[in-house]
Amino acid sequence: MIGQWMKAHAKGVIGALLLIPLLGWAASHVQAAERAVAIPAPVVDESGPTSGQLETVVLAGGCFWGVQGVFEHTKGVTQAVSGYAGGKKDTAHYEQVSSGRTGHAESVSVTFDPKQISYGKILQIYFSIAHNPTELNYQGPDEGTQYRSAIFVANDEQKRIAAAYISELDKAHVFGGPIVTKLEPLAGFYPAEDHHQDFLVLHPDYPYIVFNDLPKVDNLKSIFADYYRDTPVTVMASNKPTQ
User: From the CB of residue 22, how many other CB atoms can be counted at a distance below 10 Å?
Assistant: First the structure.
């Protein structure tokens, strides 16, 4: 995510956590890089679940830690997995993706129950809370095409609804600039390394999380109270008795 902290990831998350005692106080006094924007729900959405099947959408919006953390706290989401989309399988590794030359974006595969939350509501939270859709190839402190705003659509229906919502929001001028979110076909999603999964949940005191991501979860709780859950659903839940 940021400079030296990103280098620490390559050596292991544990070493980076040693920064916390020194930076904890400062982190608690810094506002999030991205602010939430209250936006209207999409006019065009799915007509309603036609079966009991779960649905999945892959979303990219900067560092996957924060996006995953938001959706792990969202009611109706059954799983949110950090990973890579937009490039080839053999380059779907953190160090390669961080170069910005693989075509991948740090992404989150969000699986949800359409009986509890619609695809349109997922997009509303994504645009409002999870990231700033007007930032081209960067989010907050992170810069590069691997941090682009993108929806990797799995079918024509997902593309139709997302395109209509982007048009709706742009016409309403709810943001300070035009939405730059790309609609890209989903050719493959590749889960990230285990130490990136559930990062916000496991490391709430990590400075990057405090600076940039915990405020997003707070915004979810305040703006989308009906869709907020205090106990997150986690990728590694079966290995964590406390989750």
Answer: 10
Q: Token pair for residue 38?
A: 């209250």
Which among 63, 92, 125, 209 is annotated as catalytic? Answer: 63
Q: Say what the pLDDT of residue 47 is.
A: 81
Instruction: Give yes or no: 100 in active site.
Output: no
Helices of type H across 50-152: 64-72, 94-97, 119-125
The 3-state DSSP class for residue 207 equals helix
Would the pTM count as exceeding 0.85?
yes
Give the model confidence (pLDDT) of 122-131 as tens digits. 999 999 999 9
Element (H, E) at 215: helix 214-223
Q: Would you give the DSSP letter of residue 28?
A: T
Burial (Cβ within 10 Å: 0-12, 13-18, ≥19) of residue 192: buried
